[in-house]
TrEMBL record:
InterPro entries assigned to the protein according to its UniProt record, in alphabetical order: Cupin_2 (IPR013096), RmlC-like_jellyroll (IPR014710), RmlC_Cupin_sf (IPR011051)
Keyword entries, A-Z: Signal
Organism per entry: Plastoroseomonas hellenica
SUPFAM superfamilies registered for this protein in UniProt: RmlC-like cupins (SSF51182)
Protein name: Cupin domain-containing protein
Pfam families registered for this protein in UniProt: Cupin_2 (PF07883)
Signal peptide annotation: 1-26
Domain Cupin type-2: 55-110
Length: 133
């Protein structure tokens, strides 16, 4: 079980410096739990689509990080502030979504209760899912 958990210095939790799409079904770090629900390799074999269920603990902060592809998220429960480089901070709640362009620095500040998200990453195969920004 320990091999399924990673210490992160950035990512959707702090920084997944070495987490690739094939390296874990679930992880928990720094107030964020992400569970990989599905992973599909796209035609051509250069990119994968990863479907993730994420839960951010009350008051948790996700340090600035980037992904080697697009992040598309939908808020199921709770409320958080999404901070994207070059854009004003945006508060998102249930029924709202957001997208982060590839290689764009971003972070999250969670509200007073847990936030649950459905996230889809379309990223380059074999690259770390997230890197510190």
């Amino acid at each position: 079980m320990r091999s399924r958990r990673f210490v992160i210095g950035c990512a959707v939790c702090a920084a997944v410096a070495s987490l690739t799409a094939t390296e874990a079904a679930a992880q928990a770090t720094s107030g964020v739990t992400r569970t990989i629900l599905q992973q599909t390799e796209l035609p051509g074999g250069t990119h994968v689509v990863i479907l993730v269920a994420a839960e951010v603990a009350p008051g948790a902060e996700v340090a600035r990080h980037t992904h080697p592809g697009i992040e598309s998220a939908y808020v199921l429960e709770g409320e958080c502030t999404v901070q994207v480089a070059g854009s004003p901070d945006r508060v998102v709640g249930p029924g709202q979504g957001f997208q982060i362009p590839a290689e764009t620095a971003h972070g999250v500040k969670n509200g007073p209760r847990a936030t649950k998200l459905a996230i889809t990453y379309t990223v380059e195969k074999g690259k770390p899912l997230a890197s510190p920004a």
